[in-house]
Amino acid sequence: MNERVVPMIHVPDVRATVEWYQSIGFSIVNTYGNDSGGLSFAIVSFGETWVMFNQGGQPSSQFRREVDLYIYTNKVDDIYKRLKDRVEVIEKPHDTFYGMHELIIGDLNRFWLTFGEPSLFQSLLTSVRENNIELLRTTLENADFKPETLTAALAAASSDKNNSEIAELLNKAGALPPHNVDDETLRSYAGTYRSEQGFEINVTLKGGKLFAALDRQQPMSLFAIDSVSFRPIELDNYATLIFKVEGGRTVACVVKHMSVETELRRVAGDTVTG
Questions:
Q1: What is the fold of 1-58?
Q2: Minimal CA–CA distance to 200: which of 249, 268, 270?
Q3: Which of 110, 126, 127, 258 lies deepest, with the highest CB count within 10 Å?
Q4: Residue in 244, 251, 246, 245 with CA at minimum distance from that of residue 269
């Protein structure tokens, strides 16, 4: 037997839940406890995955629910068109900063189902990193990317000399060359920064490029907007990291997300690898 994890959700009415999930495209694998027209347990499937429903649960009345389902698919917009008039839509199809195109709906028990697929921005980065010319052409034809988004993709391509055709296509689409910052300046930004609330960012320099790691998360590659402002390549126009220099020393950085700015003071410096 292949190893796998199958979620089991306790619900107030197994039969009603199964019928609702059938109505949005799930299939019944098996049911149990059919005496007197009731169900005590059921297994349903979506694609190659299963979900189990068991009796004895309660509907969710809280914003922070005890269980939700994340469903990977490649037809988010089609699912929205099919379901929008029949279900509670929590969030219409939208792109997330982490590279997914998602639709969120609520089921009859008020648990959330998120249908997700890679966004066009993620396809853009994938085409660059895999040097996939055809995927890049298709992605550019199906989306109207902002110049800064194309610049992020160009920054991702700049480390590979074999990506000249990729770079040419991005330039024609409207990408602007990332700002060139000298190694000495980049080195001066490397270090650890901490906010008053204890939020921490570790900035490192590797191979002539800056990387930023939030707390203990994986480092994200940055590209320069100007001599002091940088954005993560992987997060589409999500946040800007702005370094503050006083008296020739980097003393802090500011994380700007939409209209919110958070200052982090430098507590250690010169983190350079490779």
A1: 3.30.720
A2: 268
A3: 127
A4: 251
